[in-house]
């Protein structure tokens, strides 16, 4: 097979600072590239990423696009729309008497959801987030369906048309439809949506029953509104990106990463854009599961330190921890997603001194433009990357494979002016302080995800990836008490979220509110699942999967009678458990989560929601051996002066090229291993070992 005819699976993850790109050829060759992201038009960076991959593959861009047999994409577009408040201008049609749902925000729910424990202790000082739309763009219409799904008041279609005209006159760019009890009977919502589509065929419309047909008035309304405000921009982005790529030569499928942990076709992604929130970090967890399974790790703290943020998720007993209510920017959404939390601690996070004279790092980031001061792109404020350069962890000759040289003098000036002089420190002391602060913040984030959730981090290994993760992982793992850090696929760790996106399955999910109380009727429970299973199978068939290549799972959200929150119980594709077995399974799960004896077993058990997840694995990325030619002679290391916080001193240390290491290679710190897109910092007393596929293991010494 010649280079011009080899086909590739390509995965690209667009982050706030960098766009990460991975391609695996039919001969198993892995190619990676890392280019700057290009907000507000992220498609420019994606095309640049394709160009960089094509160059590395030895093909012109057009043939490379033509030889791309599958393109999988994770995007930060939806997250950016919500964080910046730049979504589309929307209107809402709702049941008469319920226009205040999105402003009341479920009482305290909208105020405390997503808020840290420290902030909750000062709840009186916290304001609710601004509503996603003002009341003058919420139109009430006469209709009513009751909790049983029966029509109590017929839909007044004349009022619907009047309401749509009002919203169109107000210049809305999209309309959400949220009616009471539509998850029990969506006939009125369907008809309202049809009327909107008749009156404004080109307008984006989102009905709550199509988005998330679950009980919970405020989160259902909020989810539909979030979906609607992101819909037009995200749809336009995907359509324009696909058009650009097709004009450039792409002839095959494009799949879009979701926070659920799978990929879907563009049409479904356009219909449910809210599920694209945090899709990049979720991709990292999907990839981590692949590598963890290969190396026998079942409990993993996944840490992704990129240019803008630090993202943390958990794998427990080989499966990613999930959540069903999450935050999309400042807004609550129902989202059956992999649970990832983020803090503004990335390589581009800006260091500053507050009014009390305390050194702070983040959450503001220098982003892709202007970037850290050392990038010489106009940035003048010090960042974590500037501090890493001054401490010797990064090479002045550049990052991104040498494509971006780093200016030490600019980093020094930024740190001196904004940190060292205000605090009366030397530049080196200030740089060391910046790194200590950001490492502590990341350890605190991981502690929140583990200790505060009932997990002992000492029983986990840490997976560290992202461009800055391998630079900082030893210190934040040491702070957490973890003794083993895994850098998955070595230098590929810098673009590991893209790799995870490329190894994702096509994933379709259907759920519904279906209340049942124990003792459960076996036939009734099976009846609740049957239409959801049929729908998921139909979607997988439409995606081109044969039944033998489908994997179907069923879940039930279960609780004690009278409780507000549920626990998810999972079942395979075979027979459902009997009523007694299901109740016992719930009691066992409840004791596992909350402690033995915590449940009030006499209260009775209820099922609230049922859920079906179907997966089909496309012919995507495989886990390749990313090691270089093992017959090449190793080069002698160079020496560089670096600061080592564990012994609080500066010392010369060897710098090794990642390409020179082989499976079985071992190093003892202090040392640095440099790859094209990241560096692994090995502190004094720590030990590095190279495993299969180029994965690196760090054993962390106690300090």
From TrEMBL:
Q: Where is the Acetophenone carboxylase-like C-terminal domain?
A: 524-688
Q: Which GO biological process categories is it annotated with?
A: glutathione metabolic process
Classify the source by domain of life. Bacteria
Pfam families hit by this protein? Hydant_A_C, Hydant_A_N, Hydantoinase_A
Keyword Lyase on entry? no
Q: Where is the Hydantoinase A/oxoprolinase domain?
A: 220-508
Alphabetized InterPro entries for the sequence: ACX-like_C, ATPase_NBD, Hydant_A_N, Hydantoinase_A, Oxoprolinase-like
User: What terms describe the molecular function in GO for this protein?
Assistant: 5-oxoprolinase (ATP-hydrolyzing) activity; ligase activity
Q: Which key words are in the record?
A: Ligase
**What are its GO cellular component terms?**
cytosol
Q: What is its EC number?
A: 6.4.1.8
Boundaries of each Hydantoinase/oxoprolinase N-terminal domain copy? 10-199
Keyword flag Acyltransferase: no
User: What protein name is recorded for this chain?
Assistant: Acetophenone carboxylase gamma subunit
Q: Which organism is it from?
A: Capillimicrobium parvum
Supply the gene name: apc3_1
């Amino acid at each position: 097979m010649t280079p011009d005819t080899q086909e590739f699976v390509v995965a690209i993850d667009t982050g706030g600072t960098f766009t990460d790109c991975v391609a695996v050829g039919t001969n198993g060759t892995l190619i990676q590239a890392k280019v700057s992201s290009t907000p507000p038009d992220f498609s420019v960076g994606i095309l640049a990423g394709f160009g960089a991959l094509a160059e590395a593959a030895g093909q012109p861009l057009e043939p490379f696009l033509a030889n791309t047999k599958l393109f999988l994409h994770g995007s930060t577009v939806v997250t950016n729309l919500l964080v910046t408040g730049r979504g589309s201008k929307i209107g809402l049609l709702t049941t008469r008497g319920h226009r205040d749902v999105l402003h009341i925000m479920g009482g305290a729910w909208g105020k405390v959801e997503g808020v840290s424990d420290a902030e909750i202790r000062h709840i009186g000082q916290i304001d609710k987030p601004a509503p996603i739309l003002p009341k003058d763009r919420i139109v009430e219409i006469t209709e009513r369906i009751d909790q049983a799904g029966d029509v109590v008041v017929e839909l007044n279609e004349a009022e619907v048309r009047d309401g749509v005209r009002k919203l169109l006159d107000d210049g809305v760019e999209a309309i959400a439809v949220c009616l009471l009890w539509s998850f029990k009977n969506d006939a009125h919502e369907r008809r309202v949506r049809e009327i909107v589509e008749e009156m404004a065929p080109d307008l984006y419309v989102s009905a709550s029953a199509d988005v998330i047909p679950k009980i919970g008035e405020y989160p259902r309304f909020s989810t539909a509104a979030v979906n609607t405000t992101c819909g037009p921009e995200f749809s336009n982005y995907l359509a324009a990106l696909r058009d650009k790529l097709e004009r450039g030569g792409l002839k095959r499928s494009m799949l879009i990463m979701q926070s659920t942990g799978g990929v879907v076709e563009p049409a479904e992604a356009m219909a449910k854009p809210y599920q694209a929130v945090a899709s990049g970090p979720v991709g990292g967890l999907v990839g981590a599961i692949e590598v963890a399974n290969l190396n026998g790790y079942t409990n993993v703290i996944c840490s992704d330190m990129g240019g803008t943020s630090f993202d943390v998720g958990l794998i427990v007993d080989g499966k990613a921890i999930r959540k069903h209510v999450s935050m999309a920017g400042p807004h609550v959404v129902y989202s059956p997603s992999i649970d990832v939390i983020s803090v503004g601690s990335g390589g581009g996070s800006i260091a500053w001194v507050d009014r009390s004279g305390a050194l702070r790092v983040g959450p503001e980031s220098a982003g892709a433009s202007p970037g850290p001061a050392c990038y010489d792109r106009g940035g003048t404020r010090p960042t974590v990357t500037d501090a890493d350069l001054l401490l010797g962890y990064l090479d002045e000759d550049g990052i991104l494979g040498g494509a971006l040289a780093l200016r030490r003098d600019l980093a020094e000036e930024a740190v001196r002016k904004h940190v060292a002089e205000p605090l009366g420190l030397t530049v080196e002391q200030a740089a060391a302080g910046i790194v200590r602060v950001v490492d502590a913040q990341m350890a605190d984030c991981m502690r929140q995800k583990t200790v505060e959730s009932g997990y002992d981090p000492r029983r986990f290994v840490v997976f560290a990836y992202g461009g800055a993760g391998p630079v900082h992982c030893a210190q934040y793992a040491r702070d957490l008490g973890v003794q083993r850090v895994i850098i998955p696929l070595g230098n590929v760790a810098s673009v590991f979220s893209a790799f995870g996106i490329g190894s994702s399955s096509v994933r379709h999910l259907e759920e519904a509110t279906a209340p049942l109380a124990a003792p459960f009727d076996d036939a009734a429970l099976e009846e609740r699942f049957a239409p959801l299973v049929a729908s998921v199978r139909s979607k997988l068939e439409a995606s081109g999967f044969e039944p033998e290549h489908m994997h179907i799972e069923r879940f039930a959200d279960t609780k004690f009678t009278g409780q507000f929150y549920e626990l998810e119980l999972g079942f395979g594709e075979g027979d459902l458990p009997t009523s007694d077995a299901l109740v016992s399974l719930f009691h066992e799960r409840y004791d596992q989560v909350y402690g033995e004896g915590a449940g009030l077993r006499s209260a009775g058990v209820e099922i609230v929601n049922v859920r079906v997840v179907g997966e089909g694995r496309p012919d995507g990325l495989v886990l390749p051996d990313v090691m270089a030619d093992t017959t090449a002679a190793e080069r002698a290391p160079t020496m560089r002066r670096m600061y080592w916080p564990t012994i609080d001193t500066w010392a010369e240390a060897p710098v090794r090229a990642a390409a020179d290491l082989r499976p079985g290679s071992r190093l003892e710190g202090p040392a640095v291993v440099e790859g094209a897109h990241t560096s692994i910092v090995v502190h004094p007393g720590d030990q590095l070992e190279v495993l299969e596929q180029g994965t690196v293991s760090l054993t962390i010494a106690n300090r």
